[in-house]
């Protein structure tokens, strides 16, 4: 992908016209149009100014539109890790964890996700401590609530003995996604499954839990 093509994709993702994209700069629409088409040279100062006008860092721009070889490798590992989780394939997950551990510059999030997946797939009554620790490490990441895979992991992590640790995470989701019907159907199902699994464990093992139960039931009703 050329920088001009990346600028066009960025502009379209922002929902802007070419005139709006360069508003605040001295670049003409004709010149900018040719920049997107690769017919005019793109000067560094012009690119930096356009990104600055839209409050986009150069690093995020290049990371999004110009994946490095490492980015591609990490993305593939991440997809395979998710597949091992959905297929209940702990052997595959453990092999991927070894690969992650031996790969330079891999994200901490990916390492923690591998640990959590293995703990869940290997879950026994005496493995709750491992799951709780893995959850603690994984859900400290700032953007987990925007990650569908993280939400699914949370849903499948809920146990009798870690309910105290899970409760604050559920409350965070409720605060972020106040009305489930504001989300697309797939997101609604993921979030609702978290609430339902939590309620199941809560009502099965704990008396005196009506306040939290009613709060979650009220949240689930926002999907209707």
Description:
With 224 residues, the chain is mainly α. The protein is 69% helix and 0% strand. It is built from 13 helices and no strands. Helix 6 packs antiparallel against helix 7. The mean pLDDT is 85.
Detail the topology: elements first, then pairings.
Blueprint lengths: L2 H12 L3 H4 L7 H9 L6 H10 L4 H8 L3 H18 L3 H12 L6 H14 L6 H11 L9 H10 L5 H14 L8 H21 L4 H12 L3
Quick summary:
69% of the residues lie in helices and 0% in strands. It has 224 residues and is an all-alpha fold. It is globular, with a radius of gyration of 23 Å.
Estimate the global geometry from the Cα principal axes: globular
* Amount of beta strand: under 5%
Q: Which stretches are poorly predicted, pLDDT < 50 over at least 5 residues? A: none
Per DSSP E runs of 2 or more residues, the count of β-strands stands at: 0
Helix count from the secondary structure assignment: 13
Structural class: mainly alpha
Please outline the major beta sheet: none
Q: What order do the SSEs take from the amino end to the carboxyl end, as H and E?
A: HHHHHHHHHHHHH
Specify Rg, calculated over alpha carbons: 23 Å
Mean pLDDT: 85
Q: Helix amount, in percent?
A: 55-70%
Distance between the termini: 43 Å
